[in-house]
Write a structure and sequence with these properties.
Layout (H helix, E strand, L loop, with lengths): L2 E12 L2 E7 L2 E3 L3 E5 L6 H8 L7 E6 L2 E2 L8 E4 L11 H12 L4 H9 L15 H13 L5 E5 L7 H13 L6 E6 L2 H7 L2 E6 L2 E7 L7 H19 L1
Parallel strand pairs: 4-9, 4-10, 7-8, 8-9
Antiparallel strand pairs: 1-2, 1-3, 1-5, 5-6, 10-11
Helix pairs in contact: 2-3, 4-5
Organism: Irregularibacter muris
InterPro entries: AAA+_ATPase, ABC_Gallidermin_ATP-bd, ABC_transporter-like_ATP-bd, ABC_transporter-like_CS, P-loop_NTPase
Pfam families: ABC_tran (PF00005)
């Protein structure tokens, strides 16, 4: 399976502090890539660079083996730091606003509502939605432009077990539709249940990248070892 996205020595510096330090990830096409790390590890910063919100200080982002360009955003959908929803509008109306901005046919709205399981919400305004429904609407907004890559930042944050299960099934369905998913989380069990490949990041360093194979390593042990190691290294530098 070929890589759809790669980063090469990706680095982001804020006021002399390296939020991301020489990170090289490899994301296979039509797969789910889980980016694990504790809060403040640099996950959101990395995802923001992949979506063009932030510019790398150093390093490269490659899409299908060539350097990322601004127009590649047409092929990327994202939900970072929660969905941007108008709570006085319905699910359809939220998608309609975005469709008008992106000049997308209205028929696509119905398709997306079916995909994310919100086709029967009718005139219910989104302020009355559960958190899980809002998350699914946010993912629907990210899917509106028919992206090949879907980037989700902590999509299960705050969800109850039912909401997590629904979102898990939705995420796992995307590779079969030709959509590659990159998701971040600090929840090991959730990533382990949906990801094909896993990257573990701590203090801006990628400490591990590999196939999600529970027969070969214990993810919890790997995670604790990497976080502990980078904590010690950062402590020594300080």
């Amino acid at each position: 399976m070929k890589n759809i996205i790669e980063t090469s020595n990706l680095t982001k510096i804020f006021k002399n502090e390296k939020a991301i330090n020489g990170v090289s990830i490899h994301v296979k096409e039509n797969s789910v890539y889980g980016l694990l790390g504790p809060n403040g590890a640099g996950k959101s910063t990395l995802l923001k660079m992949l979506t063009g919100v932030l510019h790398p200080t150093e390093g490269k982002i490659l899409l299908h083996g060539r350097e990322w360009r601004r127009k590649d955003l047409q092929r990327i959908g994202s939900m970072i730091e929660g969905p941007a929803i108008y709570e006085n509008l319905t699910a359809y109306e939220n998608l309609e606003v975005l469709a008008l901005l992106l000049k997308i046919p209205k028929q696509r709205i119905h398709e997306v509502l079916q995909i994310v399981g919100l086709a029967k919400t009718g005139k219910k305004v989104t302020k009355k939605f559960s958190l899980g429904m809002k998350q699914r609407l946010g993912i629907g907004m990210a899917l509106l432009n028919q992206p090949k890559i879907l980037i989700l930042d902590e999509p299960t944050n705050g969800l109850d077990p039912i909401g997590i299960q629904e979102l898990r099934e939705l995420i796992r369905s995307f590779p079969k539709k030709g959509i590659t998913v990159i998701l971040s989380s600090h929840m090991l069990s959730e990533v382990q249940q949906v990801a094909d490949d896993i990257g573990i990041i701590s203090h801006g360093y990628l400490g591990f990248e590999g196939k999600n194979d529970q027969s070969k390593y214990d993810l919890e042990e790997q995670f604790i070892d990497i976080v502990g190691k980078t904590n010690r290294e950062v402590g020594l530098r300080d």
